[in-house]
TrEMBL record:
Cell location: Mitochondrion inner membrane
InterPro entries referenced in this protein's UniProt entry, alphabetically: NADH_UbQ_OxRdtase_su10, NDUFB10
Membrane topology: Peripheral membrane protein
The family this protein is said to belong to: Belongs to the complex I NDUFB10 subunit family.
Organism: Asbolus verrucosus
UniProt protein name: NADH dehydrogenase [ubiquinone] 1 beta subcomplex subunit 10
An annotated GO cellular component: mitochondrial inner membrane
Record's keyword annotation contains Transport: yes
Keyword terms of this UniProt record: Electron transport, Membrane, Mitochondrion, Mitochondrion inner membrane, Respiratory chain, Transport, Ubiquinone
Keyword Secreted: no
Amino acid sequence: MPDPEPRNVIEKFFNSVANVLVTPTVWVREKIVEPNQKNYPWYHQKFRRVPTIDECYTDDVVCYFEADAQYRRDRLVDTNILSILRTRFEDCTIYEAPDNLEKCKHIWKQYEEAQTNWFIKYGDLGGYHNVKSAYMKQKHRMIWERRHGPVGSGKKIEDQ
């Protein structure tokens, strides 16, 4: 539906001023900005997966840096997932006020499992850690489980 004709001279003047201001802006957006934008079908930038720290050579500094950057991105994603699960549980307990212990149990189990997995991977590493210290933690945990059984299951009894 085209714009109706202006009723008087003042309306014609304001329409012409608006066209002078709007037309170049629309042209720049449609002809320059939108064709040069990166359009992703997802909400965040996807980085290619790089070799992990165990696949890097000992003298390959670039590989260490890339593995550390990927580790930090993965930790940030895992931390945000944990935050989202916690928020869902809190919202569920508020919404399902008297019966929240029964109705929010499945969300609480998901949150506890994610929290345990997060702590297994990133916990007890301190404030300033990197991918190498996390890899060493994983290696030490695997050695422990091989010698003593799963962590938290008690001591493995040696058979004679």
